[in-house]
Amino acid sequence: MRVVVTGGAGFIGSHLCKRLLEAGHHVLCVDNLITGSERNIAELRHYPHFAFLYHDVTQPFAFEAEAIFHLASPASPVGYMEHPIETILVNSHGTYLLLEEARRQQARFLLASTSEVYGDPLEHPQREDYWGHVNPIGPRACYDESKRLGETLTMEFYRQYRTDVRIVRIFNTYGPNSQPNDGRMIPNFITQALKNEPLTIYGDGSKTRSICYVSDLVEGLMLAMFHPQTTGEVFNLGNPEEHTVLEFAQTIIRLCHSSSPIVFEPARVDDPERRRPDISKACRLLGWHITVPMEEGLRRTIEWFSKEQSSLSAIS
């Protein structure tokens, strides 16, 4: 197929582009690089069916596609708090423009949404039919609420025009091509541990998270897009194995053979207390399941970050 991946130079997008190319698809990667990186797609330029377009998807552009993966958006607290207006626009107006193209071209469309639509959840674990508990005017609202609006637009195109759409709510994901300074838990901890610097925990460490290795997440995206009878469906994708933030910090210190201490800072505003997906729907309808154990995924990620730090040190 001819496939467009917006946000394709980002962390998850770059892995998705590679997986699509390996499956034989023609891929147009579209990114304005405000949080993505051309380094993430450098190896993909050798594929004859890969093309990169530097473009902001809140502005119209010409393309032909049979499938559109819409991943474009800052996704880390650092990214969307530095670019709040851009985040709102790409998840609202950008989503609308791409949905119009999907309708016109009769293409499949996948919206990469987020577990942040559940906010600080009162239901645990979170199922797809949970409406969420979100602060609409807080510092994270530019991301949380614009993703919710993107979901609304997507479902209206399904109801009004029967556009071939599906929504995936992505929970915490980690792996190579993460930005070291994006403010998320795993990149923060690994970067600090490799330098034997203090690992910073916001709060007392009792908040919980569930982390999914990026290759498993990408397989879920592929299944959600191409598996039969996914039109109009919403899927949680993530790892239901739940640990405290303190446990993650201690595990990463051990795997890095680090001497880093742990320091505690005040909790961040509107940071969820607990986060764990119910993935039974994706398992049942898509046949999707987790294949990479947490420690194996962390070892791969630590190895990648270690090589990145060595490369940067050599350059400087």
TrEMBL record:
It comes from Thermogemmatispora tikiterensis. Keywords: Decarboxylase, Glycoprotein, Golgi apparatus, Lyase, Membrane, NAD, Signal-anchor, Transmembrane, Transmembrane helix. The keyword Cell membrane does not apply. It holds the Pfam family Epimerase. This is NAD-dependent dehydratase. GO terms for molecular function: NAD+ binding; UDP-glucuronate decarboxylase activity. Its cofactor is NAD(+). The keyword Membrane applies.
